[in-house]
Design a protein that fits this description.
CATH class of the largest domain: Alpha Beta
Strand content: 25-35%
Shape: elongated
Order of helices and strands: EHHEHEEEHEEEHH
Strand order of the largest sheet: 3-4-5
Helix content: 25-40%
Radius of gyration: 21 Å
Number of helices: 6
Length: about 210
Amino acid sequence: MLKDASTYEVMTPESVGWTKNSLVLGKHSGRAAFRDRLDQLGYKVGANQLNDAFRRFKDLADRKKVVFDEDLVALVDDEVMRDHEHLRFVSLDLHAGSKGPAKAELELDVDGSVQSASATGNGPVDATFNAIQAIFPHTANLVLFSVGAVTEGTDAQAKTTVRLEENGKMVDGQGADADTIVSAARAYIHALNKLMVKRLRTEPAALSA
């Protein structure tokens, strides 16, 4: 199909109003089809990243049967992010209560160098996010903040999702921890790392519409 589309197409996509053909990937799709789809989505990955991403794709295809472009974007962004993790959570101390503004003292590993900052805010989450902003200034807007519990009970681990937007690029970060605020910090840092990966490439028009 990739070598000669006319083998399987009786007419071109353009002849019926489509701009191009889009292969649906599944559990039987090979490495060549996978690599070609990544190229169409704007990804240029090295051999090692391609091997890791293809292995994860096959695992996903076994569960989902059909893998859509959005699945590939999420999969490869996560794979690439592993090699481009500029920010890492180190520690967080908080002071919060009813007698004054919350204060967060945060440490992050930024490209191998541990940096710290203190910040106040309207509650512990706001103070923590302000401390992250102090260590790593950015212009991303927080558009979603969601907290849930992994299990039941007062000792349940918190699972937090943070969505950031910057210049039309949207990323979701996730974090989990027994401490809800630490979970929120991890999610925010995860989202920032993914956002930095997205800055390195142009988002495909079909997915950013």
